[in-house]
Amino acid sequence: MYEQITHIRQAAENALAQTSDLASLEALRIQYAGKKGEITALLKSLGQLAPEERRSVGQAVNELRDWFTQSLDEAKNALSGSALTETLAKESIDITLPGKRRALGHLHPITTVYNRIESLFISLGFTIAEGPHVETVYHNFDALNTPHNHSSRDEQDTFYFGDGGFLLRPHTSPVQVRTMQSQPPPIRIIAPGKTFRRDEIDATHTPAFHQMEGLVVDKGITMGDLIGIMDIFARHIFGADAKIRLRPSFFPFTEPSAEVDVSCYACTGKNIDGCRVCKDTGWLELLGCGMVHPKVLQMSGIDPAVYSGYAFGFGVDRITSTLYGITDPRLYFENDVQFLSQF
């Protein structure tokens, strides 16, 4: 029995020394310490020995089992470390390489200009007022001194819903009416938002566009106050060198009324023949303004004998085109990444 124990140990030592991977090591474990292994067989055979030699032989077999178990664990730890080192070498990551960054977005040019204009008027004491895109005919036309048979409704009388009592607003002027009906003077607001018209006659118009209007109602408001605010607005947005002009105009909700023009951004106001943006005039109509019509004040519950006010409105798309030199506002709605990435 002792010779057999010595033989098994020598054979196990040689096999452990030659084992180079975990799979082979597991095979050795089964060969010697498995249910049918050689050391397991020695333990089972102890019952066949005489009592006087069972103790000494059993001690030798237990020492063999303990030695094999310890040697097997040591070999397994060594091979596991080698396998990990090899794996790390094959799958190493160069931490000095630049990481993959997701491209960050940015504000749309229309939003950028909106924020710039809003910041100006907020600094001047204006508050922002908003209203629904789907508007009633009354707030959109009648309350603005534009009855059903008024000729100025022709260009805006579009995009109706149902029985004709609602439409997509063609301007943000209904917000002014709702504000005057909901709060007493003094009023000082700007009304930004998207508007809609059946208007795609040339490269300067789109069926949907962005607008901003302003309204001031208080005691003693004059045309001089309106001219002053327009001057501040032009200097802030277009710079001290921007050229503008005011000319008489007509709006049913203001009296007197005026148009404010700015030099053409396509031909820089040089009146070059063939400019499709300004049609060879050198000027672009930028915004309309005027003193709030007394009838509009009265229909909103404000006494025109006590209060007066001014209003103005402009297309944010057109101002954005002027600032960035964009000759086709349809680009604002096409979501072209090559176009938008320039801003």
In short:
This protein has helices at residues 2-18, 22-33, 38-45, 51-90, 109-123, 137-140, 173-182, 223-238, 294-299, 316-324, 337-340; strands at residues 127-128, 134-136, 160-161, 166-168, 187-196, 208-218, 244-251, 254-263, 283-292, 308-315.
Structure overview:
This protein has 343 residues and is of the alpha+beta class. It folds into 2 domains: 2-90; 109-340, BirA Bifunctional Protein, domain 2. 41% of the residues lie in helices and 20% in strands. The protein contains 11 helices and 10 strands. A hairpin with a 4-residue loop joins strand 3 and strand 4. Helix 5 (109-123) packs across helix 10. It starts with a helix and ends with a helix.
List keywords for this structure.
343 residues; 2 domains; three-stranded antiparallel beta sheet; 11 helices; rod-shaped
User: Alpha-carbon distance between the termini?
Assistant: 90 Å
Q: Give the radius of gyration.
A: 44 Å
The residue-averaged pLDDT reads 84
Residue share in β-strands: 15-25%
How many runs of DSSP E, i.e. beta strands? Answer: 10
Helicity level: 40-55%
